[in-house]
Amino acid sequence: MKKSIYILFASATLLSGTAFAVDDLALAKEKQCLSCHSVEKDKFGPSFQHIALKYKDRKDAEAVLEKQILNGSGRDHWGTKMPPAGDPGAARTRPDVTKTEAKQLVAWVLSQK
Ligand code: HEC
User: Which of 36, 99, 17 is nearest to 62 (CA)?
Assistant: First the structure.
């Protein structure tokens, strides 16, 4: 009995793991992240691979990037500013992002090394 519960649990984790990978890209598209960023090439914003490399050793990476996805960059350190999410007054507007969505996007961005 105990064993079958473990198997169930393991396969559920595996399944949701696969679904997650697809959802991440869909979410990034829905939130228009890819209109300024690409995974591999710097565009208006830095590539997600560059971001993942820059933050790979930082313990506060999740917190810092989550905040930036919600509020924009405020100051620029890659050369241009990222506008805040869901602010109609921003020079370049982008869709609103919830905290949960921001967390998911950060995990995805940081996995792009
Ligand atoms: C309107 C263009 C634009 C959109 C849309 C946009 N970004 Fe950005 N993003 C930028 C720019 C420009 C920078 C560089 C900012 C800087 O120099 O501080 C940036 C930086 C970042 C960084 C790196 C922050 C750092 O501290 O190094 C992350 C992570 C990021 N964006 C994620 C996202 C995600 C996820 C989305 C979608 C929800 C998104 N961006 C949508 C323009 C954009």
Answer: 99
**Looking at ligand 1, which atom is closest to the CA of residue 109?**
29
Q: How far is CA 15 from CA 29, 63, 95, 112, in A?
A: 22, 27, 29, 21
Write down all domains in the chain, each with its CATH number in brackets: 2-110 (1.10.760.10)
Place of tokens 């105990």: 2
Residue 67 in tokens = 């905040």
pTM: 0.82
| Protein residue with least CA distance to atom 26, ligand 1 | 65
Structure token pair of residue 48: 């997600």
Q: Which residue has the higher pLDDT, 23 or 49?
A: 49
Range 69-86 average pLDDT? 85
| Distance, CA of 43 to CA of 34 (rounded, Å) | 9
**Amino acid identity, position 41:** K
